[in-house]
Amino acid sequence: MGDSTAADGGDNSLSVRNVVEQVSRLVEQSKELQESASGLISRNSQEDASLRQRALALDSNIKMLRSFIDSSVKKGNLDTKHAEKLSEELSRASYALSEGDAATFLPCKSHGRFLRMFLGPINVRANRKDVQLKVKEEYYSFRDRTAYLFLFFPSLLLVLRSQVWDGCFPALPVQLYQAWLLFLYTALALRENILRVNGSDIRPWWIYHHYCAMGMALISLTWEIEKQPDCAQKQKGIQLFLRWAIMQGVAMLLQNRYQRQRLYTRIALGKARRMDVVWGETAGVKGQLWLLLPILFILQAFEAYVGVLLLQTAVAGVVSEWQVVTCGILLIIMAVGNFANTVQTLVLKSRVKAKMKKGKSKSDLTQVSKDQ
């Protein structure tokens, strides 16, 4: 009996001693791991700084050589054909720098106040190219989903107005739709700002356009929905806006289908970067532009018409609230901005095509002279 008790006491002291040794060993291992991790982070930071300096120097040298080639051609010190060949080589080097993993070490665009307001002072620049491309694909997926909803919601409201609501919109469904528009434009603006930070070529106007649309959706939430009497006249602006939204949904579906296919082709040919996106009137071959441009111009004209109609209803005293005036002005601003950007893109496309034709004709003449 006594021997058994002594044996148990010895076993307990042994197990306690093992636990103490294991705890001490784990503490030492955690310290060693922490020191190893700190050393690795320090080495990575030094290598990161070195690669960043090399990337900045290379980017600066490419820009300097481009400027030198352009000035040499203007002064007549460099042959045009030779200059074009050198510029093409520099473009390849610049493309490899901006599209490869080395692009991580180039300075990124400013995050802007909008991102800082919603997300705070955090870095949304992805270090890996595959992560950046996932951000772009998620943006496309979000646009695809919302395009169908953009078409469905106003169609449903117009059908319910004529079939169920006796020609008069109730306030709640319209305000729910306006709240959804506020969410949509805010989400698009956030995603587009993040894409710009990660190297996308989205034009600033399209982001500003969504800022205006956000403001209009927010203001319209405070807009009292007038009812009887004379409900049809007082709600005419809402009807026209919903019809414009249906047309906008159709245009978004066409853009998502046709223009993206063209962008993928341009990326494969090296004429566009992998982080570039299509929005508004960008991209598209001749046949697609003949289909899309009339729809875009009609949309812009109809958007301006709805804005003018809202201002007229305010001046005539039918609905004289400040929300009506503000929404009308915002619609006109967005219509004019969209039209100006569409025309600007068309002019740019025509200049690029003219330059390509001119270069092709020069090369044909050179080949003919060689054959002779």
From TrEMBL:
Family annotation (Pfam families): TMEM120A-B
InterPro entries xrefs: TMEM120A/B
Location(s) in or outside the cell: Membrane
Sequence intervals crossing the membrane: 146-164, 176-194, 289-310, 322-348
Keywords noted in UniProt: Membrane, Transmembrane, Transmembrane helix
Main location: membrane
Gene Ontology terms: cellular component: membrane
Family membership noted in the UniProt record: Belongs to the TMEM120 family.
Protein name listed in UniProt: TMPIT-like protein
Lineage: Eukaryota, Viridiplantae, Streptophyta, Embryophyta, Tracheophyta
